[in-house]
Amino acid sequence: MCPFWKRTRIDPSIAQEKVILKQVYDSGVVGIAFEGGEPLLRNDLVEILAFSRSLPLHTSLITNGTLLESRIDEIAPYINGVVYVSLDGLEETHDAIRGVGGSYRKAVRGINAAREKVSVTINTTIMAENIDEIESLVEQAKELGAKISVAVAHEYCNVNASSAATGKTSKIAHRLIEMKREGYPIVNSIGYLKVMAKEKDYQCKPWAMVNIDPNGNVVLPCYVHNDYASSVSIFNYNIKGAVAGFDWKKIENCTKCSLHCYVEPSLVLSWDFRAFMHWAFRVSI
After folding, report:
1. Which residues contact residue 37 at a Cβ distance below 8 angstroms, ignoring those fewer than 6 apart?
2. Cα separation, 8 vs 281, whole angstroms
3. Which of 95, 108, 118, 162 has its CA 20 to 30 A from that of 22?
4. pLDDT score for 2
């Protein structure tokens, strides 16, 4: 589960955000996803998104969806990627996990409001509390006209994730493969779903994705491996130098997680033909 909502530091100024984004773009990054906490809480979000698009970066947003209905009109012109909306289960389960009554209905209203203006993908983390509802969530995504992406819960250093039993995770992974082949709007590649089922190995390549924390620090090698810590300031070092100076050999055989944001690009960069065809041409074989 994501621990980022526990951050207590003050957000960077708009001027600092622009410095960070310019550095990100100059490093060779082509796409960015703004996450939180909750990015829609920022009053200056539109200015940040507009600057991102002006660079130009392929711009996406990750949200819990509760404010999406009220803000979609102002942010939509600057989203040429995807708006990812987190749903942790069906209504009762989602609200229980989030600890906020009514959050599921607000998220669904946000999806309905956004889907005609931007591409929408539901983000679902598979855990013990919701694993029996994953198939229903995929069906609901189709009904809502949205895509859906799944990932397996990972226990960060300061967050207790209720990971589902391996046998149940493998079973739902097989069902998701079937549903994908049946035409359901599952974003994940079949290769990732096989990794989820513990039937496929991969070598992680975390350098394919750059993480910048709210203070402008480059997170190396990734949030998972170093338990959410970061130290290299983007205001003191450039991203290329920070990434090039890291000793990637010490984590080249890391298997601490199976998060799709690391597994999917790692499969493609490992010349996994099926994963490449999936992401390059949307062909699942």
Report:
1. 4, 5, 7
2. 41
3. 118
4. 56
